[in-house]
Fold each of these.
Amino acid sequence: MPQCELRVVEHREPAPEHVELLLEAPRLAADLTPGQFAHVWTPGSLRRPISFSRATPDGRVGLLFRVVGAGTRWLAERRVGDRLDVLAPLGKGFPTPEAGPVLLVGGGVGIPPLFVAAQRWAATHPTDVVLGARTADALVMADDFRALGLDLSLTTDDGSLGERGRVTGPLARWLARTDGGQVWACGPTPMLAAVAQLVGEERPCWLAYEQRMGCGVGACLACVVPGVGGDGQPEWVRVCHDGPVFSSRRLWWAGAEGEA
Amino acid sequence: MDLATRVGAVRLANPVLAASGTFGFGPEYDGLVDVAQLGGVAVKGISPEPWRGNPPPRVWETPSGLLNSIGLQNPGVERFLSEDLPYLRDRGATVVVNIIGRTEDEYAAVARRLDGERGVQALELNISCPNIKQGGIQFGHDPAQASSVTRAVKAATALPVWVKLSPNTHNLAGMARAVAAAGADAISAINTLVGMAIDLEHRRPALGGVTGGLSGPAIRPIAVRAVWEVSQAVDIPVVGMGGIETATDVVEFLLAGASAVMVGTATFSRPNAMATIIRELPDVLARYGFDSVRAAIGAAHPGRWPA
C-alpha cells in the first residue's frame, strides 16, 4: 500500500526559499529508486509531487523543495513531529547504470533526485557531477555530493558560484574527454532538451521530468509530455507513471524547448 | 443500513461511483482503491478512435477547486475493450462507460461497439465537456441536438444511457426534459464549469488549453442546485456530482434528488475518499433519520419537508 503517514524528524532550510524535510521511513529508504517521488498531501485540491532528495542508512528519506506557492508554503511550515500523508514511492526512477562512468547533471530543484543516485551508485561507478542554478543561493546539496567524495563542476547563470553559464558547458567537456558512459539529468525542461541534444544517441541518457501533476498514479492524464510512440509518431507520456525518468530516446524533442 | 440504490435498471450496492476522467480505467488505483467496493466506476471518456487531448499544462489548483484541460485524451474504443476494460470486469466492478464524439455518428458508433460487451452496465453520454472546441459541447447547449444524439445512441444499443449535462447553460431543466423525452435512462449532473486562471510567473494562461473545466468543492452548490432542478423536471433518475468530499456531501445530494453520486476531484487528494465515504455513509444517514439510501432520495423536495 503506497499511501502512508510519515513523521517529520528534521526540518532544514538549505537555501533561501528551499526546505528539506526528513521523514522517518525505513522501508522507503531501503527500497526507493533514485528519481522516484512522493505525492504529498497539502490542504488544496492537489497533492504536490516531490522527488526524494536522500535515503539514509538510518531509515530516513528527504524531500527537498522550493517554496513557490500555497502548497509548498504549507509544507515548509511542517515541523518535527508532524506527520505527512504521502503516496510513495511513485513513478519509475533511474535504471541501474551500465558499466562505466556516470555523469549526473542537475539544475536547480532538479538537483535532489541526483543525490539519491549518487548515494546508490557512486561507490560502484566512476561518477562526475555537474550542478547548475540561476544563482549561488539556489544551488543546493553541493556539500552533500562533496561528502560522498565526488568532484563537482558548478555553474550559475550570474557567475555568483562556479563557472558563469549553463550546465551544458561542463557537460560538453565531459563528453569530449570521456569514452562511453552515461548521462543522467534532472532540471527544467529546456535544460533537459539541451542535455539530450548534446549527449546525442551514442550514449544512454536518462532524464527526470517535472510537470504539473494531478492524481500522481497515471489516471487523470494531466502531467503529460511529448514522447515517441510505438509507431514513431509523437504521443503523450505520463510523467507520474511512465516517468518521471525517461530515456531521451523515448521523448519527442521537436518544439520541446518551448514547453514550460 | 441499506446502502443499495438503483439508477433505472442499474442496481448499485451503494450510491458512490468514481467520476469519469478522475479514475482512469481502474488499474491506476490498484492497491489504493478496491473497485469492487464502489457503487461503480465511470471510466474515462471513450471515442471511436484515439484522441490526443490538449497540450500541457493540464491542471491548475484554484480556491477549493481544480481547473483541468485534459481534452478527453483516450485510447479509442478498441484499445479500451482489449486493454482497459478487463481489469474492472475481472474484479466485478459496475462499469459505466463515458462516451464522447465529434458527431452524432461517432457517439452512436461507440455505443454500438459497446452494446452487448460483457462487463459494461451503462453508458454515460458526455455532451458537456468544456475542453473540446468542437463536437461534444455543442450538443450540451442545444436541446434539439442533445435530444437527437440521445436518440441516435439509444437506437445503437440496448444498454442504459445516462446523459451527462453541462451547467454552462441557462436552460438546464429544458435540456433535461429534452434528453428524457429522447429516451435517456438517467441524467448525470454536473460536468465541470468553464473557467480560467493566469500563471503570473510565466505571464500566460495557466492551462495549455487556455480555458478549462472547474471542479471540486467550489462548484458543489451549483451542482446541488442542478440536481434539485433536474430531479424535479424529469421522472428519470439523476446521478449527482460536483465537489463531493464526504458522506455528508453525499446525503446533501441524495436529499436534493440524486439517486446516486459520483466522486472525482476528491480522489486526487485522498485516494481513499470514496472508501471513507462508503464507510461513514450509514452513520450519517442514520444521524439525519434515514434507514436507507432510497429513503433519502429527494427527501428535501417540496411536499416532503418535515412538519
Note: Chain A touches chain B at residues 1-3, 41, 44-47, 70-71, 87, 211-225, 235-236, 241, 259-260 (CB under 8 Å).
Amino acid sequence: MGERLAMTAKISLGLAMSGIIYAMFLVVPQYVGLGEAGRIIIVHVPTAWVTSAAFAVSAVFSILYLRSRSGLHDASAVAAAEVGTLFCLFATVTGAIFAQVVWGTFWNWDPRETSILVLLLIYAAYFALRSSVDDVPRKRRLAAVYNIFACVTMPFLMFVAPRIADSTLHPNCAFLQGSKCEGISLDLNGAKIGQLGDVVVELKAVQKQGDMTSATVEVRMPGLTDTADLIPTFDNAGQPADRPEFPGQSFRMILIEADVPAGTARVNIQAPGTGLLSNQRTLWVFMASNLTFGFLALWLYRIRATILHVTSLVQTTEAL
Amino acid sequence: MSKSLLWRATKAVFVRELRSEFRSRQALNAVALFAVCSIVAVSLGLGPLNRSAELPLVHAALLWIVLLFAAFTALARVFVVEEEQRTAAALRLAAPPHAVYLGKLLFNLLLLCALTVLVAVLAIVLLRMQVRSPGPFVVLLVTGALGLVAGTTLIAAMIARAASRGALFAVLSFPILIPMLVTAVRGTALALSGTGWDRCMAPIQTLIAYAVAMFVTSLFLFAYVWED
Amino acid sequence: MDAIELTQISIDYGARSVMANLTVRLNRGNVMVVTGQNGSGKSSLLRVVCGLQRPSAGQVRFIAGDQAVAPAEARQQIGWMAPDLMLYRELTGLENLRFFADVRGLGIPDAELNALLERVGLYGRGADVVATYSSGMTHRLRYAYALLHRPTVLLLDEPSVMLDQRGHELLEAVVAQQRMIGLTIIATNDPREQRFADVLIRLEGSA
C-alpha cells in the first residue's frame, strides 16, 4: 500500500514537472517589455522560495537536534541544507541570466540578490564547519549552533539592508502584499546623494516646465563606468511621464514626487516585469510551479535525510 | 546561580584575560601591527584621493574592512589559547558557562575598542579621512564594534574546537557579519560627510538591534558550544 | 555526595570502542581504583564522571541522601586532576588559585589559599609564575586546583606520576582526608596506590 502510494506520488511529481515546463514555454503569454525571458519567472521564483523554506526547516531541525541529540534530527537538518543549497544555486543562476537579458546586468547588488548570496555563503560555511570537526557529536552540535545563529541574522538582511539600499529591481510590489518599493528621497539642500541598487544618484536640480515637473539627476554606474544626467518627469496628474533609461541598462528611472520650492525629489528604479502576475494564465502556472517545486524539494529532502541517517547508523554499528 | 555570583565569576574571567594579556602582550602587539600595516598598505596603494562626493563612502568602506580583518586576527584568541594551552578543561570544570562567555566578550570588546581607536586615528592621519560629524561617527564606531564582538565571540568558541581555526573563523563569521557591516559602512559614510544625528540614528539603531540580537542568541547557544 | 552510580557506560572514539557497558556503584567514604593498560580508558572514564566528556552510552548519577543530584550542581562538588590538566602559565600559583576560587564564587581569603599551597608542598612559591615551575611542582599545583573547593568527589588521574617520595605522602594524606568527607576515584597503574582501593576495577581495553 505504502509503496504503491509512493510510486503514484513519484509519477505524478514527474508528470507535474513536465506540465510546468510545457506550460512555461507554451501556455504563459509573453509579457510586454520582458520578451521570452519573462518565462524564467516560472522556475526562478519557486526555487527562491524553496530555498528560504529549506533554510527555515534546517534551522528548526537544528533546534530539535540540540534538544533531542537524535541523529535523525541532525540528518534532517543537513538534508534540508543540501536541498536548500541546490535550489539556492539554481535560483541565483536563473536570476542572473534573467537579469542580464532583461535588466542588462548579471548582478546589481539588489537586496534580494544580496540576501541570496549571503544564504549561499552561510550554507558554504555550514558545510565547511562540518568537515573540519572530527568528533561526531561535537560536529553535529556545533553545526546546529551555527545554523541557528545564522538564522537569527536573516531578519536583518531581509528588512534592514533593503531599507538602506532603498530600492530594488525586483518587482516585489507585484508578489508581496505590503512590501514597499519607495525609491529614494533626495534633497538639494541636504542629502542629495543616494543609491538605487548599486547606482549612485545625485540630485542636480528640480524644475517646473509648463505642466510637467522634472528633476535632473546625475547617475554614476558602478565603477564609474558611465555617468549621465537623467531627467525624469511627471505630469500635473502626478503620474510619471518621461522614464529615461540608465546608461547601458534596460531599466529606467521614474520620478515619483517632487517639490520645486523645497528642492526635494523622490526617484526610483522601474524595471520591466512589474505586474507580471496580473495575467490569469501566468498566475495559475506560477502557483502550480510553486507547488511542484515544493514537492520536488520535499522528495529530495526525504531521500537525502534517510540516506544520511542510515549511513551514520551503519558507521556506528560497524564500530561496535 | 545568583546574579552576584555570575557577575563575580565574569569579572574574574575578564580580569584573568587582562592580566594574561598584560604579561604576554601577544594579542595587542600582533593586532596593532596588523592594523598599522593594513592602513599603511591602503594609503600607499591609493595615494592621495581626489575630493569627490564618493570619498566618504570609500573611506568608510576601507576603515571597516581593516577593522573587520583585524578583528578576524584578534577576536578568536580568547578561546583558541585556552585550547592550545589546554587550560580549557580546568576552566570548563570550575566556571559557569555564562561567566566564561561574558568575561571573554568583555575582553574582546575592550580589545576591539582599542583597535578601533587606533585604526580611526591612523585613517585620519594617513588616509586624510575627514570626520565632519564627530559625535555620530564615534557612536557608530562604538555600536559597530559592539555588533562585531557580539557576532563573533560565539563563533570564536566554536572554531576553537575545530581544525584549521584561522581560516574557519573568517569563513563562519563573514556571512553573519554582512548585515552589520553594510549598515556600519553606510552609517559611517553619512557621519564622515557631515550628516547630523537625525539621519545617523537609523543605522545606529540597526547596529544596536543587531548587537542585542546576536548577544542574546549567543547567551542561549554558548552552553552547547562549551559543554564538553 | 553519598554515592556515584555508573550505569552501562560505553565510550567510543570514532570507530574504536574503548569501554562497553561498565556498571558500578561507589559509596561515600570509599576509594575506587581503576587500573588497566595504556589506552584502556582510565582517563576517559574519569573525564566522563566529571562531565568533561559525554559517554557514547549510559549515564552517571550522583546521589545525595536518596535523591539524584543535577549534573550542573554535582559539578560544583567534583575535584579533578590529571597530567593533562593545565593551569595558566603566565599567572602565579596563587593567582591561579585565586582565579579558580573566584569563578566558583568562593570568597577564600589569601591566608587559606597560602595554607593550601603549603599543604601541597608549594610553600613560598605561590608568588612565582607557573611557567617557572618544574613538572613535579606543576603537578602539586594540580592538587591544589582539585582540592580548592573541598570537593566531595575527588577524581585523581595518575596522581603521583611526577612526584617524589614526599609527594606520595601528600597523596596518602589527601586520600585519608577524602575518606572522611566523600568519595575518591583514582586511575593508576602504580601498585602502591592500588592499596587504597575499596573497589578495584581492571579495564581490559579494546579487543
Note: Chain A touches chain B through 34 residues (CB under 8 Å).
